[in-house]
Amino acid sequence: EEGRVYNFAAGPACLPYNVLKEAQADLINWKGTGASVLEMSHRSKQFLSIIQKAEADLRELLAIPDNYKVLFLQGGATSQFSAIPLNLAGPEDAVDYVVTGSWGSKAVQEAGKYAKANLAATGKPGKFTDIPPQSEWKLTQGAKYLHICANETIQGVEFKEYPEVEGETVLVADMSSNFCSKPVDVSKFGLIYAGAQKNVGPSGVTIVIVREDLLGKAQPSTPVMLDYKIHSNNESLYNTPPCFSIYMTGLVFADLLKQGGLAAVAKKNEEKAQLLYDAIEGSDGFFKCPVAKPVRSLMNVPFTMRDPELEAEFLKEATAQGLIQLKGHRSVGGVRASIYNALPLAGIQKLVHLMKDFQAKHS
Ligand code: PMP
User: Fold this and answer.
1) 8 Å CB contact between 186 and 209
2) In what residue span(s) does the Aminotransferase class V domain sit (predicted)?
């Protein structure tokens, strides 16, 4: 892995080294076909085998029940902010949003264009450092769905358990930044969506897992590219899909299965996050994580420094040591370590080492 850095970017993010090597070996001549996946017709039997295996492996990883469809779509998770209300609600239907950070804020704002979007709860008054207690949520009876962001990538706030919904209301979750980081009981959700570019691949493909009975009720004005039923009827091949991104994502799914599946992956992720949070907690306030302990993300760890003046120097030293992309999101500042599945434990050990050294030098 000579010359490779530890990449703490929030997304697009690091990919497993062995997956990159495999893609490299396949790049010019995929399995003796004489052509690259980059050049392959999406209608060819070769590509069909790629997308079908990707779906089968994802189904195995998450134990996705048979009455759920898996869609490989384009337009990023952001397109889903519009597609979800358009497909699951009518213009006069209520839809509930619990907002715990920047992405949930964007989702509810977009939903308001297509349905009666209700802000059931928001962590904004507390600067998104906690999830408002469920007893304070103002849910709408008969809402078509309740939307949450399972892991807020910028604020580092993660749901550790998922809310129950009542009656016909279904739970919808944006899992972009913790997708496939741990097992999930898919049957508790009406719909799960995730952009690939954090945990499971490069940018360009967004995965939607949706309960079959929710399909076919899209608003008449829904753009064809946002209509789940169209994509479902055409096995994600209604138009030209992002073939190479789907291929890469498939390689990542296979790799996760090889690692022992998501329970094994979750265990590694817990160990990695614990090491970093312990270092922050053990720094006597030199480093500080603003997020309430019970909801701290295992994927995105934001922290600040007691002396913000030292931040630039810290980031510079990190980069010099091959620990890159640690700058916090421009909207919140500070430092953020995104420690997705593919970020090795050794990278976190090196970061923790730097934090200790840096503190010793500046105390
Ligand atoms: N939701 C979450 C939780 C995200 O982290 C992101 C991207 N950072 C998005 C949605 C938007 O995804 P995209 O850029 O793929 O539209």
Assistant:
1) yes
2) 5-351
Percent of all residues in the chain with a pLDDT value above 70, rounded to a whole number:
100
- Is-catalytic flag, 174? yes
Which one of the listed residues 198, 255, 272, 327 is annotated catalytic?
A: 198
- Pocket of ligand 1, candidates 109, 157, 177: which has the most ligand atoms within 8 Å of its Cβ, to mutate? 177
Do the two domains 18-258 and 262-361 of this chain adopt the same fold? no
User: Which CATH number does 262-361 carry?
Assistant: 3.90.1150.10
3-state secondary structure of 335: strand
> Residues 30, 103, 116, 227: which is the catalytic one?
103
What residue ranges do the domains of the chain occupy? Answer: 18-258, 262-361
- Per residue in 161-182, pLDDT (tens digit) is 999 999 999 999 999 999 999 9
From the candidates 93, 96, 174, 255, give the one annotated as an active-site residue.
Answer: 174
Closest CA to 105 of 81, 84, 133: 81
Calculate the alpha carbon distances from 201 to 146, 152, 172, 197, 363 in Å.
Answer: 27, 19, 22, 5, 41
The torsion angles phi and psi of 6, rounded to 5 degrees, stand at -90, 115
pLDDT digits (tens, 9 = 90+) for 251-290: 999 999 999 999 999 999 999 999 999 999 999 999 999 9
Q: What per-residue confidence (pLDDT) applies to 179?
A: 98
Q: Mention every residue, 6+ apart, whose C-beta is less than 8 A from residue 75.
A: 206, 225, 226
| pTM given for the model | 0.98
Residue of 74, 78, 179 best suited for mutating to test ligand 1, as the one with most atoms within 8 Å of CB: 78
- What does CATH list as the number for 18-258? 3.40.640.10
- pLDDT, tens digit, 9 for 90 and up, residues 46-65: 999 999 999 999 999 999 99
* Cα 68 to Cα 228: distance, rounded to the nearest angstrom: 12
